[in-house]
Amino acid sequence: MASGSDETVVTRFAPSPTGFLHIGGARTALFNWLFARHHGGKALLRIEDTDAKRSTQPAIDAILDGLDWLGLDWDEDTVFQSERGSRHVEVAEKLLAAGHAYKCYATTEELEAMREAQRAAKQPLRYDGRWRDRDPSHAPLGAPFVIRLKTPDEGETVIDDRVQGRVTVSNAELDDYILLRADGTPTYMLAVVVDDHDMGVTHVIRGDDHLNNAFRQLPIIRAMNEIEGGWPDPVYAHIPLIHGNDGAKLSKRHGALGVDAYRDEFGILPEALFNYLLRLGWGHGDQEEFTREEAIAAFDLAGVGRSPSRFDMKKLLNMNGNYIRAADDARLAKLVAARLGSQADEALLTEAMPVLKTRAKDINELADGAAFLFKTRPLEMTDKAAELLGPDAKALLRQVSARLHSEQDWTTEALEANLKAYAEELGLGLGKLAQPLRAALTGQTTSPGIFDVLALLGRDESLARIDAQARDPSDAPA
């Protein structure tokens, strides 16, 4: 069956575990996952952990956790590149035996002198092929060597990239790069090609910073296809990188953080980040929000643009707000309770969620908005709230307290009718009544609607909070 047909689509996401799952990596993972799901194929995960000094178990755990949180599942067991070294060596030895690779005995000093001469002549820095056609017997006995790929040095290589279009590179620009180091360990270039082939990968979807690598990796694929057959070229799709909102390369100040930071620090829901990353460089008409099923049905590489996309935290938060309003109240209550700590009551939070979530853009805002429910008396006041509770406001609160003590129907509707009528009797706008009430009940100047606050706190706690703030300082015991 031809590579690239729907029945055989296999994609892979292959992060290096040297840090967190950053936002660009998460989008690459998503695009690979969606493309495979759209075509009814397989999405595979490979951890490229051959850099033993920089790869860490906490980074592997963070990557797996971030992918799981986004809801990206994989179709086979995770492949760890570090466990496949003998297979990488096997392919290098086949290339060597077939004349597609050779032993290079150049010393570190010789290579540095070569580069110095190239710098002086303002030439590109690349290996000059000094051992390409030399007999290994010319090397000193027992001298260390690396194995280099004998890349084609005439003609050109053409890639019909599914995102970038047709890209052509002169083969004279490719150098004979190292496949096996002097200690016998494989290089990234060799390991990636071998693993992609052995995993049956048909479509290599990755950032466009890897486009040059494709031209260096294809000679291995084509040489192995010549040696043993069954090594077809993959379909390439190189996705433009993500930039900051100012057009500069994405950095931490723009939001180049780990997926876990969006969850834990910024309070983003996974479905919101999933949707935002989907739309970051990919489009489908005017549609902005997609369910997971809609995304799978719609996604294809034709919708990926060639220009870098711009990460905009404000847009992500706006989208997150939409998802918060649509989310299940009990689920949100659980997330908020985790932020508020042991004093939080999930049942009360669930009851409060319809009024708490109307304006919140993230879980942190939800938690801040809900905190008043679990405060203990005497309430800690913000400076602005304290300013609203001067002598006149306290006198007004004493009147409101007397009015509310007689209210037996402690529902949002009854409280609203009562206080609106009372404000009218006093000749006050409702805001003049609501402002000191909000400060007394929450210790803040912002909250859900004042009638909702009263109903959620309940009759006894509401009256106790109002009376605590309404007390005339002159009434305090000597």
Fold and architecture overview:
It is a single chain. The longest helix has 18 residues, at 211-228. The chain has 19 helices and twelve strands. With 478 residues, it is mainly α. Strands 1-2-3 form a three-stranded parallel β-sheet. It has a three-stranded antiparallel β-sheet with strand order 4-5-8. The N and C termini lie far apart (93 Å). α11 (329-340) packs across α13. 46% of the residues lie in helices and 10% in strands.
Number of helices: 19
Largest sheet: 3 strands, parallel
Q: Compute the separation of the termini in Å.
A: 93 Å
What is the share of helical residues?
A: 40-55%
CATH fold node name of the largest domain: Rossmann fold
User: What oligomerization state is this entry in?
Assistant: single chain
Give a count of the beta strands, DSSP E runs of length 2 or more.
12
In the predicted model, the low-confidence regions spanning at least 5 consecutive residues are: 1-6
* Spatial order of strands in the largest sheet: 1-2-3
User: How much β-strand is present in the residues?
Assistant: 5-15%
Assign the CATH architecture of the largest domain: 3-Layer(aba) Sandwich
What's the structural domain tally?
4
- Tell me, what is the CATH class of the largest domain? Alpha Beta
Task: Give the CATH H-level superfamily of the largest domain.
Answer: HUPs
What structural class should be given to the helix and strand makeup? Answer: mainly alpha
Overall outline:
elongated
> Kindly state the mean pLDDT as a whole number?
93
Radius of gyration: 32 Å
Binding site for ATP: 252
Motif ('HIGH' region): 15-25
Keywords: Aminoacyl-tRNA synthetase, ATP-binding, Cytoplasm, Ligase, Nucleotide-binding, Protein biosynthesis
Catalytic activity: tRNA(Glu) + L-glutamate + ATP = L-glutamyl-tRNA(Glu) + AMP + diphosphate
